[in-house]
Amino acid sequence: MKKYQMYIFAVAVLLVAVATAFALWADALKIRLEVNTGNVDIEFTGVPRATEMHGTQQGEYEGKDVGSCTAEFTEVQDEEAAAAGLLPPSWNPSSANADKELKIVITNAYPGYQCKISDVNVKNVGTIPVKLLVKILDKNHNVIRPEQYNGGFVSYIDTDGDGCTELDVDYSSFFTLNGTQLHPGESQSFTVNLRLPTERQQCIAEQTTYTFYVVIIGYQWNEFP
Amino acid sequence: MKPLTTIAIAMLITAIATTAALMADTLTTKITAKTGTIDLNLQTATWTCGNKKTTVTYTPTKTGNTYTIQINVNPPGQSSDSCTVYLTYKNTGTIPIKIYTTSSSGNTCTATPTTTGQIHPGYTGTVNVTISCTGTCTCTVTSTAKSWNQ
After folding, report:
1. pTM for the whole thing?
2. How close is the nearest chain A Cα to the Cα of B39, in Å?
3. Tens of pLDDT along B94-105?
4. Could you give the ipTM of this predicted complex?
5. Binary contact (A87, B24; C-beta < 8 A)
6. Is A213 helix (H, G, I), strand (E, B) or coil?
7. Concatenated DSSP letters for chain B?
8. CB–CB of B87/B116 below 8 Å?
């Protein structure tokens, strides 16, 4: 074997040795982390039923048919705006866009008129337990704090911000949802009891529309404020 | 590898915590309550007197749901007479009403009934005002419509 051939052979052996060593030294370990989050999702279920009342009796006073009260599930156009101010700025509202809302319409009402909405439930259709929080908002989406009497059974609210309370929302109705925990698949029924109190008739104007919102917020149970 | 793993786990925990803070859903109930109206309108005012020559005039003034009606009775030659004025009101609002009527004091002026029965929207009710005078006299009647359930 000639001398230069021996050099070539030696270099080749050296390269193989280096390559082998490099392959051993450059080995890598990878950790793959995969997190699949659940979702918080609540929706209304049931078939809302509107019943006119006077006191504890069904129907209007003396059996008359003067006012009317209806309740249905429908898409309320501005509901996202109404609720947005109650949630953290980073809240992603997309999870609520498809929900039908509960719309209650009372017409030709008068002091003493009373309507009860029943057969409505809030259901947890997500995958994480939720706790519910109820807020009342006026037509401008400001939070209303009820003026409560008789242990909350009478709860006057001022929906038009004139400093005079014109409606009574029975605190024992939808407020009972506050703090309720629903596991996935569970639901909780509630009612809406609304009255135009004769004792506050000085605050009730004729031919006027009073608008307010009841917002139910479902927080994941361990983040309930 | 150990420090890198620690950092990765810390980042993961942060990501989960951030995600958890965002999880909420809302349901909204929109409630609108539109009130009706209480209103009345004086449709007619007619009268009968003992003496056909007695003159009767009236001036109605309406403020809100209240009519104030001034009635003047003028028997001829300062004589005495008794007249009954029939005030017919129509419920021009949207809910049933009762009409509460008062009259100026004195035996010479009496309104009946002081509270009418229920008058449904579109229907009428009549208040009778009896006035007894010797010479010219004036009676002021005030009728106010209120909701039937009050």
Report:
1. 0.78
2. 10
3. 999 999 999 986
4. 0.81
5. yes
6. strand
7. -HHHHHHHHHHHHHHHHHHHHH-EEEEEEEEEEEE----EEEEEEEEEESSTT-EEEEEEEEETTEEEEEEEEE-GGG-EEEEEEEEEEEE-SSS-EEEEEEE-SSTTEEEE-SB---B-TT-EEEEEEEEEEESSEEEEEEEEEEETT-
8. no
